[in-house]
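This is your field. Pick holes in the following sequence-structure pair:
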Amino acid sequence: HCTVTLGVQTRPGQPKPASPINLTGVRTLVVDDHPTNLLILRETLAAWGAVVTEADSGEAALAELQRAGGSERPYELLLLDARMPGMNGFEVVEAVKNAPFGNGLTIIM
């Protein structure tokens, strides 16, 4: 055991400034079947500097990832809805893990 004597702070400390989110130039694919969610994510990410492309289904996402994977500018970030009709987000992740265009891709579901 130990004993520590501490003084009482008389004035609050200065809060640390939040570090700004900087996604400038990060190629991002947003996948969601709901148009409002796509709109919100697109606008938020664009405000942070990301280059955003949208897909409204798992199948469309895989096609876009494959197309971009064969180019000089593959996607770096994938924002993915887990619950979509047809191919859900978990199935998309499994397909991406086994594909060459999934290398170096950060996935957030």
Residues 35-47 form the longest helix (13 residues). The two ends are 45 Å apart (CA to CA). The chain has a mean pLDDT of 92. Strands lie at 27-31, 51-55, 77-80, 106-108.
